[in-house]
């Protein structure tokens, strides 16, 4: 996985990150459409992200949609993933930010 800095991410992702940050990462922020997901558990079922930190403590992840859900369509795949371990990684269409 390639490590990324927030400033290296696309402008739209930086903008959304800023809005979640201002909201304290407490779910959806004002202006998001119905069905846009923010703060649910990210299962990491494909094991692309570590399950434990350097001290063997379990890492939990939450996902936040980058784009608003469009009525009549499924959610797209672009997400911010926040973990309990401090590092930044970029996955295809999934931005791992903490």
Automatic annotation (TrEMBL):
<keyword id="KW-0540">Nuclease</keyword>
<dbReference type="GO" id="GO:0004521">
    <property type="term" value="F:RNA endonuclease activity"/>
</dbReference>
<dbReference type="GO" id="GO:0003723">
    <property type="term" value="F:RNA binding"/>
</dbReference>
<keyword id="KW-0378">Hydrolase</keyword>
<dbReference type="Pfam" id="PF00545">
    <property type="entry name" value="Ribonuclease"/>
</dbReference>
<dbReference type="InterPro" id="IPR016191">
    <property type="entry name" value="Ribonuclease/ribotoxin"/>
</dbReference>
<protein>
    <submittedName>
        <fullName>Uncharacterized protein</fullName>
    </submittedName>
</protein>
<dbReference type="GO" id="GO:0016787">
    <property type="term" value="F:hydrolase activity"/>
</dbReference>
<dbReference type="InterPro" id="IPR000026">
    <property type="entry name" value="N1-like"/>
</dbReference>
